[in-house]
Amino acid sequence: MSLKKYRRQLLVIIAEASLEKRLVEDVMHLGAHGYTVADVRGSGTSGVREGIWESDRTIRMEILCEGAVADVIASEVMARYAANYGLSLYFSEVDVLRPEKY
Q1: pTM of this structure
Q2: How do 87-96 and 6-16 pair as beta strands?
């Protein structure tokens, strides 16, 4: 049996946990059908974020959607938050099996 695959965009947002509620509202308002959020830790150009203290927590938000929706979300997130918060975004093209979910 051959599976029918559909191309979608995966937008990943790594951000300070204090942004989670606002990001959820923004992402849903801008056209995403859903999202996944997880607490994460790591190190980069901004230093080490171990998540030990509430103010040191970081989240990873994943949004699977149409490419145009991912572009709008990324543009809005960058415009609203990049100047004042720790934030990283990246995209990947992915194939999904149930396109109506995304």
Answers
A1: 0.86
A2: antiparallel
Tokens representing residue 47 in the block: 């230093």
Q: What is the 3-state secondary structure (H, E, C) of 59-72?
A: EEEEEEECHHHHHH
Angstrom distance (rounded) from CA 16 to CA 49: 10
How high does pLDDT run on average in the chain?
A: 90
Q: Where are the beta strands (DSSP E) in the chain?
A: 6-16, 36-40, 42-44, 47-49, 58-65, 87-96
Residues 6+ apart with CB under 8 A from 71: none
Vertex 11 angle, CA 97 and 61, to 5°: 100
Structure tokens at 23: 């990001």
pLDDT score of 42:
78
Query: Can you give the pLDDT at residue 45?
Result: 61
> Cα(60)–Cα(87) distance, rounded to whole angstroms?
10
Count, in order, helices (H) and strands (E) of the chain. Answer: 2, 6
